[in-house]
Design goal:
480 residues; alpha/beta; five-stranded parallel β-sheet; flat
């Protein structure tokens, strides 16, 4: 049976109750003055009680991520709850009319922040000065997330002021040039920066030669996250700067990789553990065994090349993701050649088969989307993955009888999440079987693609709630 709902701690209950009461009061406030007085009373109470930093921080984030609360109330909450002891702030989305005041509050009151996430505040040129002021004043920042808004002048101030910055997200469409990038490796950020999320997925909106300078001059850089042409930048270093340079990069994402680029990656990046190749050229996949990978992702490749590769080096992999492979994926061979695999993701594959019943001894997460999978193969995967925790399959042709056979004949002591997105032959009978046979099951979906009516779903939810069972049936609300 699915697990029972745990009893929340007294601290969790208190914060939840306080946040809900405060948000109700703010939502019903008739004007800004009434909302401000409400918050002032709360802050006065906190001060008398010597409230900890965690209380301010948890309450502030609960308010900022609440969709139904109007921007004024969220802003006033930040203004009064952002204390110098608060170390984490994620602003959420605000209208443009609030940008100036919001940035001013962070600049004046955010001196203790170590993590600042401004995703949802798309600062424009007229307010950029305040953002400059923030990065100059917040000396403790080690994580800064400002996608889509960075420019060369902002990077200049970051490079000049943020000596403790380890993670910087400046991804998306930006006005960054080589001048701004140079600021990151000539300023005080040079030694600390380890992760720079930059660029747009699949687009070379920032020249690979500029990225090459970043890799070459940031001694502790390990990850460029979104940038999709890292191999091209590595090859530039190898051919134009130094064949003897060694990078600390542990993740490389490259597009249209040829043999020369792959050879450069092998030489320059000996510490790579995670590799994503989008449309690798002829002979490239066979070179991957020269790297000691734990995670591999391939898009638009030949399946026969993958199987040959895994015969040689599959035992080191813990995660494999494949997209749009040409040919057939044999799950039995994956299980045989990748005994340590914990995660397997299959997308847009034409042919999925099994040749025997080899177990996936360590696999915990299986995801198969936009791919036709025969019932016999899906049954094999479910019943031969003893440590399975999460299962997600796009198109499922199982009937209730199939579910009964699969789940009644096998133990599932670890299974927590099951996602069958399109399963038109399954009814609430399958829900009951999985609830009964999976003692850790807490999420089951997506019932909008099942043979389940709104009345069926509401009845199941009532039963689950009355039994205090920790199981969420998705989607929430009324089925379409």
């Amino acid at each position: 049976m699915s697990p029972k709902c745990p009893v929340p701690s007294l601290g969790e209950c208190a914060i939840t109750e306080l946040a809900e009461s405060l948000m109700r009061a703010l939502a019903t406030a008739s004007d800004e003055l009434e909302a401000t007085l409400c918050l002032i009373d709360l802050c006065s109470y906190f001060e008398k009680c010597n409230a900890t930093t965690d209380v301010y921080q948890d309450l502030l984030q609960a308010i900022l991520c609440t969709d139904y609360l109007n921007p004024l109330c969220r802003f006033l909450s930040m203004q009064l709850l952002l204390k110098e002891t608060v170390t984490f702030l994620a602003t959420g989305m605000f209208p443009v009319s609030y940008y100036e005041r919001l940035l001013q509050v962070i600049s004046v009151q955010g001196s203790g922040l170590k993590t600042l996430n401004m995703k949802g505040v798309w600062v424009k040129e007229e307010n950029m000065y305040y953002l400059f002021d923030i990065v100059r004043k917040l000396k403790n920042l080690n994580r800064l997330t400002i996608p889509y808004i960075a420019n060369d002048e902002l990077l200049h101030h970051i490079g000049e002021s943020c000596a403790n910055l380890k993670f910087l997200d400046i991804s998306g469409e930006t006005d960054i040039t080589e001048i701004g990038i140079q600021s990151l490796y000539t300023g005080v950020t040079r030694e600390a920066l380890t992760v720079v999320d930059i660029g747009i997925l699949g687009e070379e909106n920032i020249c690979h030669t500029d990225i090459a300078e970043l890799i070459y001059n940031l001694p502790n850089l390990i990850n460029l996250v979104t940038y999709s042409f890292v191999g091209k930048a590595i090859h530039h270093i190898y051919t134009r700067k130094s064949k003897h340079f060694r990078s600390k990069l542990n993740y490389v994402h490259d597009t249209d990789t040829d043999l020369r680029t792959m050879n450069s990656i092998v030489e320059i990046c000996p510490e790579v553990e995670c590799l994503y190749l989008d449309n690798p050229g002829h002979g490239v996949v066979s070179k991957i065994d020269q790297l000691k990978l734990t995670k591999l992702k391939l898009h638009n490749f030949r399946c026969v090349d993958l199987h040959l590769l895994l015969e040689r080096c599959g035992d080191t992999l813990i995660h494999l993701s494949v997209i749009q492979g040409r040919g057939t994926i044999d799950f039995s061979k994956l299980a045989e050649h990748c005994p340590n695999l914990t995660g397997l993701e299959i997308y847009m594959m034409d042919s999925l088969v099994k040749s025997d019943d080899t177990n996936f001894l360590n696999a915990q997460n299986l995801e198969i989307l936009h791919s036709k999978i025969p019932n016999s193969v899906l049954s094999y995967l479910i019943t031969h993955t003893p440590k399975l925790k999460r299962l997600s399959v796009g198109d499922v042709n199982f009937t209730d009888d199939d579910i009964f056979r699969v789940f009644n004949n096998t133990e599932f002591p670890y299974l927590e999440d099951v996602w069958f997105l399109n399963a038109s032959y399954l009814s609430t009978a399958s829900v009951e079987v999985m609830m009964d046979r999976c003692p850790m099951l807490t999420i089951l979906g997506q019932l909008s693609g099942w043979n389940v009516t709104y009345e069926d779903l509401e009845l199941m939810r009532t039963m689950i709630s009355s039994a205090n069972t920790k199981l969420t049936l998705l989607p929430n609300g009324i089925l379409p």
